[in-house]
Design a protein that fits this description.
With 426 residues, this protein is α+β, with helices and mostly antiparallel strands. It contains eight helices and 18 strands. The chain is rod-shaped, with a radius of gyration of 47 Å.
């Protein structure tokens, strides 16, 4: 008995490249699914704006890349709308066919009730249309690898341009701009599109139309910055969203992203303001911040003024004290070497007592003045200012409730007099 031994040798290079090939295949499959999703979204957009022919073409291209039964329902719905728009029997039969294929191919059709309802409405219409023929039988489910083509006629060459920017206008080959999405039947080749929207930079791009296909382009636009112009006292500090931007004034408006920003203006010795402002892209917002002097600064200035007054008073008292001292010296000089009488001694002592009192008042005034001056100066130096939020609603309410001054003349009569009284309200 002869034994046959077989040995299989696998190259280590094949084992090395096997995971790489599998990963590449997975990435390729994912890219196909992504492209199918793009076509499906394009078809949904075209369906929304009533471009049913373009929507059908987009759905069919999505189904060709990723044959999902749910896409068949979308094709059927669009064919149904197209039939009622164009009254073409071929479109009606296509809608019926797609509804049946959806029911047949989907294992658990979520829209089965809708599909059956649509079939019950559409199939009776076939008998009333010329050249309609009989209702086609149910189609066998197509194998995933050999999908039967859905397009029965030569497909048109179309482009579909869309953008997520609100209010966008799309110009195709320098034609009159239209709203987004824009669908056009075009000749194969290169075409120029221009997309513009309020608050966005106008963008131009070239698109190549492929014969017999729907080319979709979803073009995101670049936002224009929102501009902020600040009107505030010189040397005041500007902060936006907690970040210091610099000192006012600024040579040009500040560029920011659109949306809500917290704007804060502060300055030493003043009551700063803070407010949330909504900035719109492409527009300039003027933020006015008339700061008022802080209470600490007002008190500091009052103390400095009082300090100056006290020091001045001290100087006056010192002058009178010196005058009294000089008067006492002159009194002694006038008596010479003669002994002082009790009256002269009392006058001399009184002059000296007045001198000492005035001198004490002078020192007290100067001391108080210096203390007030030092305190006021420190209060000025360390007055960092406070921040208060701007309450716009309260401000508008108070302004609405504020009354203008009114005056009323009223005759007044009393015992022994008569006149005219004036009443006023503020």
């Amino acid at each position: 008995m002869t034994k046959l031994r077989l040995s299989l040798r696998v190259s280590p290079w094949l084992l090395l490249f096997a995971p790489i090939c599998a990963r590449a295949q997975t990435q390729a499959d994912e890219s196909v699914v992504v492209r199918a999703r793009e076509y499906f979204r394009a078809g949904a957009q075209a369906y929304t704006v009533g471009e049913y022919a373009a929507a059908i073409q987009a759905f069919e291209q999505a189904y060709a890349l990723a044959p999902r039964p749910a896409v068949l329902f979308s094709i059927a719905q669009t064919e149904r709308r197209q039939f009622f728009l164009a009254r073409d029997p071929k479109t009606l039969r296509r809608a019926i066919e797609m509804y049946r294929r959806y029911i047949d191919e989907e294992s658990q059709p979520a829209r089965k009730v809708d599909a059956v309802q649509a079939l019950s409405e559409l199939e009776p219409l076939l008998t009333g249309l010329p050249g309609s023929g009989s209702v086609p039988p149910l189609l066998a489910p197509a194998a995933p690898t050999t999908v039967a083509p859905l397009v029965q006629v030569a497909p048109r060459t179309r482009v579909m341009i869309s953008t997520p920017a609100a209010g966008a206008r799309i110009a195709f080959d320098h034609q009159t701009p239209s709203v987004s999405p824009l669908v056009r039947e075009v000749d194969p080749g290169e075409h120029l599109i221009q997309v513009a929207a309020p608050g966005y930079k106008t963008t131009e791009r070239k698109v190549v139309a492929v014969s017999g296909e729907l080319v979709t382009v979803d073009l995101p636009l670049e936002e224009l910055p929102a501009l902020l112009e600040v009107a505030a006292p010189a040397d005041s500090q500007l902060s936006i969203d907690g970040r210091v931007q610099g000192r006012c004034p600024f040579p040009k408006p500040i560029e920011l992203s659109s949306g809500v920003h917290l704007i804060t203006i502060s300055k030493n010795g003043f009551v700063g303001v803070s407010s949330e402002e909504t900035l719109v892209r492409g527009q300039t917002t003027v933020f006015r911040a008339p700061l008022r002097v802080s209470r600490q600064r007002t008190i500091a200035k009052f103390m400095l003024g009082a300090s100056a007054s006290a020091v001045t008073a001290g100087g006056v008292f010192a002058y009178f004290s010196h005058s009294q001292e000089q008067a006492a010296k002159d009194f002694l000089a006038s008596r010479g070497n003669q002994p002082l009488s009790p009256e002269d001694l009392a006058q001399y002592n009184s002059t000296r007592i007045d001198r000492d009192r005035i001198r004490g008042a002078a020192w007290l005034s100067v001391g108080v003045g210096v203390g007030l001056g030092v305190t006021g100066a420190l209060m000025l130096i360390y007055d960092g200012g406070t921040i208060e939020p701007i309450k716009k609603q309260e401000t508008q309410t108070n302004q609405g409730k504020r009354r203008s001054p009114s005056w009323l003349a009223q005759p007044t009569v009393g015992p022994g007099f008569a006149g005219l009284g004036l009443l006023g309200s503020f």
